[in-house]
Design goal:
This protein is an alpha/beta fold. It has ten helices and ten strands. A hairpin with a 4-residue loop joins strand 4 and strand 5. The model has no long low-confidence stretch (mean pLDDT 91).
Length: 286
């Protein structure tokens, strides 16, 4: 009988030595989740990490590792909760042009995420949405979930983020904000939504895990690797970005990413430093 860990390593195109990462880092993390004294089911585990930090891969291994303990884990990606392309275009037209680009708080269907968690808590059947990044739009088909769920893995680049202090919004952090948001309207609304709708979603988290990259420069490098994978999968996908477009795209994430790197490690339940090779260096816990 084949080993599901080896099968997953092969399916993800990971090197054989990745099993050491699983044993040294992901297995202890699965053990902590399994032993968490949850007062309800599903337990909601938030997994925060900048683009390319390995959130999706981690969730896949956690699902398998928890299944070994007869614990059913399901992953909900914040990326799959993005507003549709037409909804974001409408938001850009009526609120601020920068909301046309997916990513920041304000560009997700937060109510949908809250509804999914509510349905899981009630044990109801549901469909997890799926977002097609190649087409930059929500896919028509989702994933049907039936039966009880023990653990919900809520993963995303800004999962668990807290708003900045108002005075921190005054100065632009890059040319995008300086040139396209000179009055701070866009970043002010992002911060406001983070303190309202997103706060309610993130309040559902029982255990917060942070995959912490070194700095924002790592985000640009890792996001470029993601773009290469998308291009390899579908060279003609309309949502693909060249280097200039990728720089502009990442600029939308810079402010909040820097903020999270500075403040989240002190309050996350688990902090896992991620090296330039996109692998964990070691596991640290608060």
């Amino acid at each position: 009988m084949s080993d599901p860990i080896d099968d997953l390593i092969a399916a993800e195109g990971l090197p054989a030595d990745y099993r050491q990462i699983v044993e040294q880092h992901w297995q202890p993390l699965a053990t902590r989740i399994a032993r968490f004294p949850a007062a309800r089911a599903p337990l909601v585990v938030g997994i925060n990490g900048a683009q390319g930090s390995g959130k999706t891969t981690l969730c896949k291994f956690l699902e398998v590792l928890l299944a070994r303990r007869q614990i059913r884990a399901v992953t909900l990606s914040l990326d799959d909760l993005y507003l549709t392309r037409s909804e974001r275009q409408e938001l850009a037209k009526n609120v601020h042009p920068l909301f046309a680009t997916r990513g920041v708080p304000g560009t997700h269907a937060v109510a949908m995420g809250l509804g999914i968690i509510e349905d899981m808590l009630a044990g109801r059947e549901l469909d997890l949405p799926r977002f097609d990044k190649g087409k930059d739009d929500r896919a028509e088909d989702g994933t049907r979930i039936t039966g009880p769920v023990d653990v919900l893995l809520l993963e995303g680049w800004c999962v668990g983020a807290k708003p900045q202090d108002a005075e921190a919004l005054a100065e632009p952090v890059n040319d995008l904000e300086r040139q396209e948001d000179p009055e701070g309207i866009w970043r002010g609304l992002v911060n406001h939504w983070l303190s309202e709708d997103y706060a309610r979603l993130f309040e559902q988290i029982d255990l917060l895990i942070m995959l912490k990259v070194d700095d924002f420069a790592a985000v640009r490098r890792n996001r470029a690797l993601q773009e290469d994978k998308l291009r390899a999968a579908d060279p003609d996908a309309p949502g693909l970005m060249d280097a200039e477009a990728l720089d502009r795209f990442c600029a939308h994430y810079e402010r909040l990413t820097r903020h999270m790197l500075a403040e989240m490690p002190d309050r996350a339940d688990v902090v896992i430093p991620i090296g330039p090779d996109q692998r964990p260096r070691d596991t640290g816990e608060d």
